């Protein structure tokens, strides 16, 4: 199996926020060309909302880095609480591979329970997570 090297990458994560916070949460994208930081993109998404994939696509496509980005990386499948990223939509909009990285193995049973019992549009969000983990490169 050959390994492709990506020289122009953007990685997104969300800013810290209080558990009881309601509203928009800042997201930050770090653009790297090889090992060099080339720029930073900043946006906002709704806490526990459904707008992350759309906002990420807008942020990347509207940036001066759009034509050079080769890969979008995410720190987890959700930003701003349970604003689950529709990685399929994001890939379709940008025509770029999307890589989701998690530092620790998530407790999928707890995530499913929380989404389906406490979060608006939770069943759809759980389906996105489940499909994302089933899809292989």
Q: What is the fourth-level CATH superfamily?
A: archaeoglobus fulgidus dsm 4304 superfamily
Describe the largest sheet. 5 strands, mixed
Quickly name the level 1 CATH class: Alpha Beta
Distance between the termini: 12 Å
Secondary-structure element series: EEEHEEEHEHH
What does the radius of gyration come to?
15 Å
Structural class: alpha/beta
What is the CATH architecture assignment? 2-Layer Sandwich
CATH topology: archaeoglobus fulgidus dsm 4304 fold
**How many E-type strands?**
7
Shape summary = globular
Helix content estimate: 25-40%
What is the residue-averaged pLDDT?
Answer: 92
Report what the structure shows:
- This protein is of the alpha/beta class and 137 residues long.
- It has a single domain (8-104), classed as archaeoglobus fulgidus dsm 4304 superfamily (archaeoglobus fulgidus dsm 4304 fold, 2-Layer Sandwich).
- The chain is 31% helix and 30% strand.
- The chain is built from 4 helices and 7 strands, in the order βββαβββαβαα.
- The strands form 2 sheets. Strands 3-2-1-4-7 form a 5-stranded mixed sheet, covered by helices on one side.
- The protein is globular.
- The mean pLDDT is 92.
Summarize the SSE layout with pairings.
Elements: E1 8-14, E2 24-33, E3 36-46, H1 52-61, E4 71-75, E5 78-79, E6 83-84, H2 87-94, E7 98-101, H3 108-118, H4 122-134
Helix pairs in contact: 1-2, 3-4
């Amino acid at each position: 199996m050959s390994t492709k090297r990506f020289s122009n990458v953007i990685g997104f994560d969300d800013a810290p926020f209080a558990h009881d916070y309601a509203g928009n949460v800042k997201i930050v994208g770090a653009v790297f060309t090889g090992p060099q930081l080339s720029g930073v993109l900043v946006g906002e998404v709704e806490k526990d909302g459904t707008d992350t994939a759309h906002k990420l696509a807008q942020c990347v496509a509207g940036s001066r880095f759009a034509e050079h980005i080769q890969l979008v990386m995410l720190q987890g499948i959700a930003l701003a609480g349970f604003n689950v990223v529709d990685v399929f939509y994001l890939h379709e909009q940008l025509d770029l591979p999307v890589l989701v990285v998690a530092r620790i193995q998530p407790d999928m049973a707890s995530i499913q329970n929380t989404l389906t019992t406490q979060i608006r549009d939770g069943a759809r969000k759980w389906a996105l997570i489940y499909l994302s983990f089933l899809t292989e490169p």
